[in-house]
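User: For a benchmark we're assembling, each entry needs the component sequences followed by a predicted structure for the full assembly. Here are entry 17's components. Please fill in the structure.
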Amino acid sequence: MSPDRLDLLDVDGALAEARDGLTRAGFIVAAGAAAAGVAAARPESAHAAIPASDRDVLNYALVLEYLQAAFYTEAERAKALTGRTANAARVVGAVERAHVKAFRDLLGRKAVGRPHFDFQGVTESNRAFLKTAVAFEDLAVAAYKGQARRVRSRAVLTSALGIHTVEARHAAWMRYLNGNTPAADAFDLPRTRNEINGIVASTKFITAQPSTTSGRKPRYTG
Amino acid sequence: MNQHRPARAPDRDTRSSVTRGGALRTAALAAGGALATVTAIGAADRLSAAPSAAKDVRILNLLLLVERVEVAFYEAALERAELTGELQEFARSVLAHEREHLAFLENALGDKADPEPEYDPAAVTQDPDAFARAAAKLEDVAVGAYNGQAANVTPGAFLAAARIVSVEARHAAWIRSIRDRDPAPDAVDQPYDRARVMRELRELGLAS
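Assistant: Structure for entry 17:
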């Protein structure tokens, strides 16, 4: 894989300039605010059986699953995708939503809230969608791998591994549809949280405030 | 380097292989599976015996067997299954990966590696269709084997296994894509225990 998936996420050719500064802070603020809000508003739950450090990892994974679920759901609603790409978006979207629900159920009151998203039109053509989907899925594989060693509960780890390989299947599927080789290397490398956060932030797909996109003219029809 | 296109990649979107109804059914089943699997975590979190170097040897030898089978299978397929196009590209790429995985495990195990068993991939490499069917199953077995064992090894072995298992999952989705099957049929991939790994390899005629 390339050392940095930013090139694939850089769908409008200008995102690389935004890697530093407020965009990065935006992702962390959005996720952090949601986490803080939950912690302040909700008492200790019955989910204390999971070690606190594992809850932290699960919440981190939940944010990535929120991101993916929102992306595929928006793609499905936009109805702009066609053929096998549209089918893949539907199937993968249902799975990512299932991951979100599973993590939320598992975390109970400790679950972070859903951030706000603005996918800036990348869900509205097969080409932009696939390019972004490849980047998201490869990123998810690297993110799960990067966090796995921090998990203390064997049961959490086993389930996380099972989700990790589903993300890898999705990555290969989207790559196949996009005309990329589905498995580029013999070994997939992990990424740290800082790396993942930086890449996600650079996309500006996560916004600190509810998107105002809906107040403008519709980005898609149908 | 990683952008080369499969021989018949263009215009796949014009073909609709998985029906909408089928896809939605699959997704619904997948969602149910995810909940059943992941929410079960909240219950008792029983640990099997703690990881140890001795346990690593036993587990890594199972994974070694899987990689040996894969290498033998893809080598035989490339020699005799008369693969062309996408299937040939798939087999060549995957064989190269499996050889790297095998070399890694052989190196990790050193003189603790089990003797190489007999396997006869002839029946599952007689033609492209037989190869593709067997490859899809074998890659799913590899994913299940790593997922089933990774949580039971020491941290060093775990990190290596984690770097390999997602590549096996990519292979599984790749061959399923070529075969017009759902590349990711479940929301959570199941861990396979040793007995299931061996049973599935035997069903393929690739273990005794």
